[in-house]
Design brief:
- By secondary structure, the chain is mainly α.
- The chain has one domain.
- The protein is about 65% helix and about 5% strand.
- It is built from four helices and two strands.
- It has a two-stranded antiparallel ribbon.
- Helix 2 packs across helix 4.
- The protein is globular and about 50 Å long.
- It binds FE2/S2 (inorganic) cluster (FES).
- The site of FE2/S2 (inorganic) cluster (FES) has 11 residues, from loops.
């Protein structure tokens, strides 16, 4: 069910002005863009007519969630090593 939800989410346009989907944004985040500004430079989010008023909050939440997941993964890996 969660995978199905993720698949549907991937097709959603997060940055509506620039027609940038969640899948594109998540791929850029996984490639190392860990801030809104980095994403803006790499894929152009937030450069549309609304100047990020509609998408910034959603994109920043995705970046924060990804960072939390990375930290949780690090803690889990460190726990296994000791
Ligand atoms: S929705 Fe992203 S710049 Fe307008």
């Amino acid at each position: 069910m969660n995978t199905q939800k993720n698949l549907i989410d991937n097709f959603k346009k997060v940055c509506i002005c620039r027609s940038i989907t969640a899948a594109t944004i998540m791929q850029a985040i996984r490639d190392g863009c860990l801030s809104f500004e980095a994403l803006r430079r790499k894929i152009g989010v937030g450069t549309g007519n609304c100047k990020a008023k509609r998408c910034r909050q959603n994109i920043e939440k995705r970046v924060q969630d990804h960072k939390k997941a990375l930290k949780a993964e690090e803690v889990e890996t460190a726990g296994k090593e000791t």
